[in-house]
Prior knowledge:
alpha/beta
Amino acid sequence: MNPLIIATRNPGKLEEIRLLLGPEIRLRSLADFADLPEIVEDGDTFEANAVKKACAVARHTGCPALADDSGLEVDALGGAPGVHSARFAGENATDAQNNAKLLHLLGETPEEKRTARFRCVIGITTPDGAVRTARGRCEGRILKRPRGRGGFGYDPLFLVPALKLTFAELSPGEKNRISHRGRALKAAKPLILDALALD
Ligand code: IMP
């Protein structure tokens, strides 16, 4: 059986996916395919970006591929930053700059109007061009000040109301259990098994 190629160069993301899918699925990442041309994430939706990345990797490697795209949607900002989450404050923006821009735009918006969610879409494609997608989301609220030291990106500003903790205050295991990516990966597992069986 061919391995499943995970469209990431981030070893943390690869390990997170390995943990969720279990040892029976053989995984490789883009770290093993240095000559793959850069894939521009210019879609209008998480789904368009995830499918574009997965298709490009499956075509290039001849193996089934999985790609994810995720981001934060803030209701008071009409769904921004959305697909622009990584570069909200500019092309090479740091997490701190993105968070500062988010806090600035929300200003004194009251607590009950600071609702937001993380979304993740996973695309799974096989070299014959078949595409499968799975989704996950996690609802929360944007705080007025950051809290917690864990995670990355917008984690210190994202409060999970049921836990009264931000994503940055959760252990990696707790975050995976309820996060948009964890939920999307759980939903993707049967689709992955299906794609590998048919490959
Ligand atoms: P990616 O599609 O996983 O690369 O995520 C794109 C961007 O969305 C990241 O650069 C972060 O700014 C934001 N993001 C996605 N997932 C998370 C998360 O779990 N915590 C915080 N920020 C996230």
